[in-house]
Design goal:
pyruvate kinase; 8-stranded parallel barrel; M1 Pyruvate Kinase, Domain 3; TIM Barrel; Pyrv_Knase-like_insert_dom_sf; 7-stranded mixed sheet; 4 domains; about 25% strand; nucleotide-binding; magnesium; about 625 residues; globular
Length: about 625
């Protein structure tokens, strides 16, 4: 085939795509007509993009590249403009008359401006030298400590996320007041983003264990203490300012007032072993103590205070401790019973000879899923760390055979996620709690994260509740399931009735629900669809997680953070080292911005390239 024939073939293919795009405009005119006026061209472009993707264009793209023509590789945000441009070039090269492009076709520059405007409204102010925003999930300490919020804002937090699955309105309003106070002081616009909990499927409560508190120091291979146990000592209603405590010891407020730095607290633990705690420092309404030996404390244990500068001893007792959290240890081929009713879970039971007399059992928080699951379907627990298959479906319970766990067994506790990736669950995205929380969220949030969005009707249900609220917050739809991914275009066209709108790629549940081998391409497709609708995306779940929790990132986490720059916003979860993590992520995103905008690669100047040297 000669060059002219190839060009004519390309021209026919481009024409067919344009015809299909116009047809789809008519087919979905009702949905397009319902979107917010600001989204009218964006909705049209989304439909054009889906028309383009309904063709197998890999061969077309290769032919275009070989002829030195635009390959449509990054055409998501301006599909019709790109198609018409290629058509014009091909017609000119074939000596054919060129038709004038129709008015209103969205240009590359216009599409970029639309996305940037939508990003500003949804995720807050643009940080200096960084266009990718940072969203941080706030821990409870944010309600008590204004300086904590203020430091995060100064370090680069653009959006503060409050998860309504945790805490309560009295805590949320304190967080919000601190955000507003920091915004005023720093002259920034950190957005308040509130997560509706949604119908999260989790394991039910475990049967309470004994009221025992266990803690131990860290030791090296020779047994020497490298890090003593860090203990928070305070009245029962005073919680630690962060999550670095190895244990929390409730004591009487009168004793706490007498405790000074350098004092020691002596006690005999539940095993009859003598031990002591060295008081390290005061913080807020509590004290930090250090213990160099393992201990088992129980409610009512006698505490004897030895003061540094005085003789004599002050006595008190350990306050009411929470029951020790039980867990189920599961190994491959074990059987786990999952109850429909809220029966407290228990580990497997054995007789004195080690013979199994009762299988481990636990309940789930959404009993309605029992109507939808079937034998032979997979079930994952605890973010996919434990895998199983439904062996049998019995009256009010499921028999699950464990197919994957750690070699020495994996622990399953109450409140851990459950996923049924093979099952078609008929679960609505808005719960009774969500509707109740909307009274608060609608009044205070700049943006609402809508959980477990599977279909357009879930958004419609939200819009119905939202209709009663005068000031409409922005909306981010969280895509957590295969159905949510599959129905994303229709979900977005429905959500675009309000403004602004965003997408959250909830990578934890989504990876489990869609399968690890499929997740990379699914994540990519979600961002492409967002680009086509000029809707910003949030890259969420496990970003720099090891660093947030332990202070040191893994190599793969750094690579992941680099890739996150392609999204408009990156979400961090809470952790003891969250401030350090925000600072590192800010640096990574600023540095990577020099190398490209989304998928458009830049080539920053290499200062010593002419000397055969590379530079940063």
């Amino acid at each position: 085939m000669n060059r002219q024939d190839k060009l004519r073939q390309i021209g026919h293919q481009i024409r067919d795509i344009i015809v299909k795009a116009r047809e789809m405009e008519n087919i979905y005119s009702d949905l397009i007509g319902r979107v917010h006026p600001i989204y009218s061209k964006s909705a049209l472009n989304l439909v054009h993009y889906l028309a383009l993707r309904s063709f197998d264009i890999e061969k077309l793209q290769t032919q275009l590249r070989y002829l030195g023509l635009p390959g449509m590789d990054n055409a998501e945000a301006h599909v019709m403009s790109s198609l018409l441009s290629v058509q014009t070039i091909v017609r000119l090269m074939c000596g054919m008359p060129v038709a004038q492009n129709p008015a209103g076709t969205i240009s590359i520059k216009k599409s970029e401006n639309l996305l940037k405007t939508n990003t500003n409204l949804l995720f807050g102010y643009k940080s200096t030298n960084r266009w990718t925003r940072i969203m941080v999930t706030l821990p409870t300490i944010a309600a008590r400590d204004y300086t904590f919020i203020n430091r995060l804002v100064k370090l680069g937090m653009n959006s503060a996320r409050i998860n309504c699955a945790h805490d309560h309105p009295a805590v949320w309003i304190q967080m919000i007041n601190h955000i507003k106070q920091s915004n005023k002081a720093s002259k920034k616009n950190c957005k308040i983003v509130m997560d509706l909990a949604g119908p999260k499927l989790r394991t039910g409560a475990m049967k309470p264990g004994p009221q025992i508190l266990r803690f131990k120091p860290e030791r090296d291979l020779s047994g020497k203490v490298t890090k003593p146990a860090k203990l928070w000592i305070a009245p029962p209603d005073v919680f630690p300012p962060d999550d670095t405590a190895d244990a929390i010891i409730p004591v009487d407020a009168r004793l706490l007032k007498k405790i000074k730095r350098g004092d020691t607290i002596h006690f005999t633990d539940a095993r009859g072993k003598k031990n002591q705690i060295l008081i390290d420092r005061k913080q807020g309404e509590g004290k930090w103590g250090l213990c160099h030996y393992s201990a088992y404390l129980k409610t009512g244990t006698e505490l004897k205070l030895n003061k540094v500068k005085q003789t004599g001893r002050e006595k008190s007792f350990v306050g009411e401790l929470l029951a020790l959290e039980q867990f189920i240890l599961l190994c491959k081929n074990d059987l786990l019973i999952v109850h429909k009713e809220p029966i407290p879970g228990e580990p497997a039971k054995y007789d004195r000879k080690g013979k199994l007399i009762a299988h481990a059992h636990i309940s789930c928080t959404l009993p309605e899923v029992f109507d939808d699951v079937k034998p032979g379907e997979a079930v994952f627990f605890n973010d996919g760390k434990i895998e199983g298959v439904i062996e049998a479906k019995e009256e009010g319970r499921l028999r699950v055979k464990i197919t994957h766990a750690k070699k020495m067994g994996s622990k399953l506790r109450g409140g851990k996620g459950i996923n049924f990736p093979d099952s078609h669950l008929n679960i609505n995205g808005l719960t009774a709690k969500d509707k109740e929380d909307m009274n608060f969220v609608g009044q205070w949030a700049d943006v609402v994260n809508l959980s477990f969005v599977n279909q357009a009707s879930d958004v419609e249900a939200y819009l119905t509740v939202l209709g009663k609220i005068k000031e409409k917050p922005g909306l981010i739809v969280k895509i957590e399931t295969f159905n949510g991914f599959r129905n994303l275009p229709e979900i977005l066209l429905c959500a675009m009735q309000i403004y602004p709108v965003g997408i959250m790629i909830a990578r934890g549940d989504l990876a489990i629900e869609t399968g690890w081998k499929n997740f990379a391409s699914i994540q990519e497709e979600i961002m492409r669809v967002g680009d086509a609708a000029h809707i910003p995306a949030v890259w969420a779940t496990q970003v720099l997680e090891s660093m947030a929790k332990n202070g040191v990132p893994t190599r793969s986490e750094i690579t992941d953070a680099v890739l996150a720059q392609r999204a408009e916003c990156v979400m961090l979860n809470k952790g003891a080292y969250i401030e350090k993590t925000v600072n590192v992520l800010d640096s990574i995103l600023k540095k990577m911005q020099k190398h490209g905008y989304k998928k458009q690669m830049h080539l920053p100047k290499l200062e010593e390239a002419d000397r055969l040297k590379l530079s940063l």
